[in-house]
Prior knowledge:
This protein is an alpha/beta fold. The chain folds into two domains: 53 residues, no CATH class; 201 residues, Thiolase/Chalcone synthase (Peroxisomal Thiolase, Chain A, domain 1, 3-Layer(aba) Sandwich). It has ten helices and five strands; from the N terminus they run H-H-H-E-H-H-H-E-H-E-H-E-H-E-H. The chain has a five-stranded mixed beta sheet with strand order 1-5-4-2-3, with helices on both faces. Helix 7 links the parallel strand 2 and strand 3. The longest helix has 23 residues. The chain starts with a helix and ends with a helix.
Amino acid sequence: MSSSVQHERLYRLLVSSMLPIVAVPLMLKAGELRPVHVFLAAFVPAALAAVYLRLRPHAVYMVDYACFCPSPGLRVPFAAFQEHASTCVDERSLRFMVRLLERSGLGEETCLPDAQHYIPPERDLGSSRDEAELVVFSAIDDLLAKTKVSGEDIDILVVNCSLFAPTPSFADMVVSRYKLREDVRSVHLAGMGCSAGLISVELARNLLQVAPGGSNALVVSTETITPNYYTGKERAMLLPNCLFRMGGAAVLLSTRGSRTWCGR
């Protein structure tokens, strides 16, 4: 028999006998200790482990997400955009917007809210709310259908829209529409710019880590186009007219185990 085989057998024997070799001296030594010492030796590590598990931050999972998908009737080809814009801005501004649109990377399938399809575009409060409700509610409906979650399961709600912050807020609209619980923590973020989506996710994560385990957070991010259409001559202000389109997304975060949700 080769020496390598003998060494392997000796190693296996040593590993399999490690627990008795260590346990027997410890048991003999424990017999010499007072009962209170044995109790403390078992209780203190268990108590420290329990405190650590309770105070450590909860792991936050992204369960799923859904994006707003506009109907084909809201599509605005370049020709239609140019025709509508010609009634709102002067010729010089129109030429600038057309050049910018051609170089923007946007395609012919981008969409604008229904109020922007009128000549001239409508920018009133009612039309702005209609756009917000269409985008926000459509995204949430798709998300709840995918995750099989009801409004009663939502513990935290964070909604962000930088340029349109009406009263009641978007968060209030969602709470009322989906019959969320009275104790739901709801937040509406406004004026945060293009980073509002990341700020909303971070806020929801922080709230989940201090909430009871197994909590769910709904995060909705959108921006309204209707009230922000610019008709002046300042080129920097004309940029959003060409670059921004309808859009929104909803995401469900949770501190439930990944086995329950199969979180992403």
